[in-house]
Amino acid sequence: MPRSVNSVASRARRKKVLKQAKGFFGRRKNVWTVAKNAVEKAMQYAYRGRKEKKRNFRSLWVTRINAGAREHGLSYSQFMGALKKNNIELNRKVLADLAMNHPEAFKAVVDQVK
């Protein structure tokens, strides 16, 4: 009985990986063994990056809220503590947007918690 190798599926798999490696530098884009490793590593970076993005944005929001709160004589922790005490449930994303783009609305929030 002849050996069955299913080269159609093998080629499809390789084409898929080489397509993902498009734009890579040197042999990483067109040599199967090198491209496979490069794509696997890129997928690990992408997975990790999706988690890091959430951390980075939260950090950015905290920085913006802190800057906005300090303009009105409060630190970030004092401001957030006052928000919790007054049961104002605005998340950091919204507060950061108010502090950056709508300072008068942010001032109204600060005045309400003071």
From TrEMBL:
<dbReference type="GO" id="GO:0005840">
    <property type="term" value="C:ribosome"/>
</dbReference>
<dbReference type="GO" id="GO:0000027">
    <property type="term" value="P:ribosomal large subunit assembly"/>
</dbReference>
<keyword id="KW-0687">Ribonucleoprotein</keyword>
<keyword id="KW-0689">Ribosomal protein</keyword>
<keyword id="KW-0694">RNA-binding</keyword>
<comment type="similarity">
    <text>Belongs to the bacterial ribosomal protein bL20 family.</text>
</comment>
<dbReference type="GO" id="GO:1990904">
    <property type="term" value="C:ribonucleoprotein complex"/>
</dbReference>
<dbReference type="GO" id="GO:0006412">
    <property type="term" value="P:translation"/>
</dbReference>
<dbReference type="InterPro" id="IPR005813">
    <property type="entry name" value="Ribosomal_bL20"/>
</dbReference>
<dbReference type="InterPro" id="IPR035566">
    <property type="entry name" value="Ribosomal_protein_bL20_C"/>
</dbReference>
<protein>
    <recommendedName>
        <fullName>Large ribosomal subunit protein bL20</fullName>
    </recommendedName>
</protein>
<dbReference type="GO" id="GO:0019843">
    <property type="term" value="F:rRNA binding"/>
</dbReference>
<dbReference type="GO" id="GO:0003735">
    <property type="term" value="F:structural constituent of ribosome"/>
</dbReference>
<dbReference type="Pfam" id="PF00453">
    <property type="entry name" value="Ribosomal_L20"/>
</dbReference>
<comment type="function">
    <text>Binds directly to 23S ribosomal RNA and is necessary for the in vitro assembly process of the 50S ribosomal subunit. It is not involved in the protein synthesizing functions of that subunit.</text>
</comment>
<dbReference type="InterPro" id="IPR049946">
    <property type="entry name" value="RIBOSOMAL_L20_CS"/>
</dbReference>
<keyword id="KW-0699">rRNA-binding</keyword>
